[in-house]
Structure formats: C-alpha cells, structure tokens
Amino acid sequence: MTEIIDLIELLRIFILSVVQGITEWLPISSTGHMIIIEDILPLSSSAEFKEMFMVLVQLGSIMAVVVLYFTKLNPFSRKKTSQQRKDTWFLWFKVAFASIPAGAFGLILDDYMEEYFNKPIVVAIALIVYGVAFIYIERERNAKHAQVIGNLQDLSFADAFKIGCFQALSLIPGTSRSGSTIMGGLIIGAARPVATEFSFFLGIPVMFGASFKKLVKFGLDFTQAEFIYLIFGMIVAFIVSIIVIRFLMAYIRRNDFTGFGYYRIILGAIIILSSLFKRSF
Fold first, then answer.
1. Which of 1, 79, 87, 181 is 20 to 30 Å from 202 at the Cα level?
2. Mean pLDDT in residue range 268-277
3. Residue 233 above 90 pLDDT?
4. Residues contacting residue 6 through CB under 8 Å, at least 6 positions apart
5. Rounded to 5 degrees, what are φ and ψ at 273?
6. Helix or strand or coil: residue 5?
7. Which residues touch 105 (CB under 8 Å, ≥6 apart)?
8. 28 and 264 in contact (C-beta within 8 Å)?
C-alpha cells in the first residue's frame, strides 16, 4: 500500500478534509480557508482530481447531518406519531422547495462563477461584507428582541423559499453556503437553532447534486491512490463534521453569530494582505 500512497499527499488530504469538515458548517466560508491552505499545502495531484476532491469530500460532511438528524429526517419512523410523520414530510417538501433557487442558478452560473469569481479578492470581499452583515443583523435582533419562528414546523413554505434565495448567493465564492442560509433565516426572524438546522438540511440536496454533477463531468476514472485519498478525505470530513455540528448547536444556544462575523472580517483582511504581499515580490 505504501508503494502507491504518497504519505505526504495523504497528510495534505487529511488537513484539507479537517478544514472542510470544520468550515462547511460554521458560517466562515470553506473557500476562504481552502485558499489559504492551498497556498501553504498545495496538493500534488492533478488539477482535475483536486477540483473533484474539493466537491466530493463534502459527501463526508453531509453524511454527518444524515446520521445526526436521521430520526428527525426519517418520515417512515414507527416511533413517530402520524402527525410527526406528516411534519417530517412537510420538512422535506420545504427543503426541496427552498433548493430551487440555488439549483436553478447553480446549473446556469456555477462554472461561470468558478472561472471568473473564484479569486482571492472576490473571496475576501465576500468574507468581509457578510461578516459586517452578521454583526449588524445580530445587533438589530438583540436590540429589538426579534424572533418569530421558534421551530421548524412554524417555518412556512414562503419562509423556506426566502432562505433558499439566500442560499443561491453562496455561488459567490467566500459567501459560505451555511453563512448565507443562516443569515437568511435570521433575517426572516427564525430562532438561531431553527435557522442553523434548516441550513444543515438544505445542504443535503445541494451537496449530493454538486457531487453528482462533478462525477458526471469527470467520470470514475480514478487511480487506486486517488480513490484511497478520496475515501480517506470523506471519512475524515465525516468525523470532524459530527464534532463541529454538535459544537455549533450547543454554542448558538448560549451565544449569537457576532463572533463569526468578526472572524470573517479578519480572514478577509488576511487574504487581501496576502495577495498584496505576493504581488510586491
């Protein structure tokens, strides 16, 4: 096995997968962090494999949601009452309805955004803008004591669609899919746990869809080493995501998202300074 596996490359895969598992769920932009990590520890694999890995590793992250929330997401559970099973089906319908904007715009604009907008300066600006927005929204909510939607059952189809429109904004690199959807939930008046959980669930069709699209584009033409890297990365991302999701849900029951806003601003500034430093040398 050591003859076909580059242990240094495996270590890079491990680090990238840990970062992905953390940043996929926290509203701090996985793209922004990947830019920094790729500068420090670039993969030696082909450009095609790197592009595919960055998408397919998310399957490990999304499986963490499926496992942690299996009971809540399972409409066939015999432990649920008839009303609870009905509520679960409605939750899935809301997720499907909310996925329409991102799905539609993603099919049309994903490759364009990746080619022309996946640049450090764009990522940095998005990080800073949404960081400021998080701080402003939380201060407004705290000042007005605003909260209307206290559970997922109270989330209407119109509310879900509005959150889905915010998810479409995550096509802009640096925005953060979880960040945009959580922000959308906060703006419409959802409690932080409701906005966060619905953001998790919205990731299921989006990530499976994106992974399927990449597989169709690149096929299953992996080398044995690349296949092992991919499976290893997904397992690492799965384990890290389990930990991060549990942490985030516990954190937001006692805190707001202001800290993440400041973190985004700092990260955006670091990316801008790093880009300026590279140009000067």
1. 79
2. 88
3. yes
4. 44, 225
5. -65, -40
6. coil
7. 168, 171
8. yes
Distance of CA 175 to the CA centre of its chain: 10
**Percent of the chain residues topping a pLDDT of 70:** 96
Q: Which two tokens stand for residue 33?
A: 């962090």
Dig out the tokens for 7 from the structure.
């242990």
Q: For residue 31, which of 184, 170, 213, 206 has the smallest C-alpha distance?
A: 170
Residue pair 205/103 in contact by the 8 Å Cβ criterion: yes
49 strand-pairing partners? none
Concatenate the DSSP letters of all residues of 232-266 into one string.
HHHHHHHHHHHHHHHHHHHHHTT--SHHHHHHHHH
Contacts of 1 (CB under 8 A, 6+ apart): none
The Cα 185–Cα 162 span in angstroms is 8
Alpha helix stretches (DSSP H) within 24-147: 30-40, 47-56, 58-68, 70-73, 82-98, 100-116, 120-144
Q: Rounded to an integer, what distance in angstroms lies between the CA atom of residue 26 and that of residue 181?
A: 11
Instruction: Answer whether 195's CB lies under 8 Å from 260's CB.
Output: no
Q: What one-character DSSP code corresponds to residue 117?
A: T
Provide mean pLDDT across the span 246-259: 96
Cα dihedral across residues 98, 240, 187, 154: positive or negative: positive
Q: Are 249 and 196 in contact (CB under 8 A)?
A: yes
Is 57 strand, coil or helix? Answer: coil
Q: Sign (positive/negative) of CA torsion 196, 204, 13, 233?
A: positive
β-strand partners of 190: 149
This prediction has a pTM of 0.90
Q: Among candidates 243, 215, 175, which has minimal Cα distance to 59? A: 215
CA distance 28 to 32: 8
SS3 of 78, please? Answer: coil
Which burial class, exposed, middle or buried, applies to 97 when counting CB atoms under 10 A from its CB (0-12, 13-18, 19+)? middle
